[in-house]
Amino acid sequence: MKMNRVEKFLMNSPVRAAFQIWYEVPLLERLGGRTEGMRVLEIGCGRGVGTREIFRRFGAQSVYALDIDPDMIAKARRRLSDFPPERLRFEVGDVTAIDAEDASFDAVFDFAILHHVPVWQDAIKEIRRVLKSGGRFYFQEATSHFLDKWFARTFLEHPADNRFSGPEFVAELERQGFRIGEKWVERGGGDYVFGVAFRL
Ligand SMILES: C[S@@+](CC[C@H](N)C(=O)[O-])C[C@H]1O[C@@H](n2cnc3c(N)ncnc32)[C@H](O)[C@@H]1O
In the list 7, 75, 146, 170, which could disulfide-bond 47, CB 3.0-4.6 Å? Predict the structure, then answer.
């Protein structure tokens, strides 16, 4: 589900970029380490702020980044026009039907997208399909604790049901064949969940 105008304004703001670069990325790096030389998929890349960090901070060799919203893909392409096509490809696409072979990525990054997907469990199935055995799934997600708040209910637009808490998200990953152990944390009083899951 695409973002509404309010959420687009917020997600495209410098405040969002700063939070992602200075807080989320270092936390995910602490949990899962770098992805030096790896082939990475980023789902719901938005305008590409996280995409640049996957190269700069995590050291990926190449990134295939997709987003369901053509406007966001156009912004991301402009933002990262300095990267050669053999290292970076942006495509309009849906995380529940990823245009990639089985076991074709070493790592997948999710910066705040699956809470937009009506049947997010199907997206996890796809992520597992395209990850190699032992591959890593880095995630940062907004939970039902956040989505139930007045601000989110009034100004933002998300699927009405089938949302998740942090523990429910982690339990679904484990149910679908990921190992997480201690590599996840809740932040913002349960509004957000961060972690790194390993595909078994
Ligand atoms: C909250 S924004 C996060 C954008 C960016 N990752 C960031 O952290 O700034 C969620 C993004 O997921 C995209 N999205 C929503 N549903 C999607 C789907 N089914 N497949 C791919 N992208 C999707 C939206 O278009 C939007 O760009």
Answer: 75
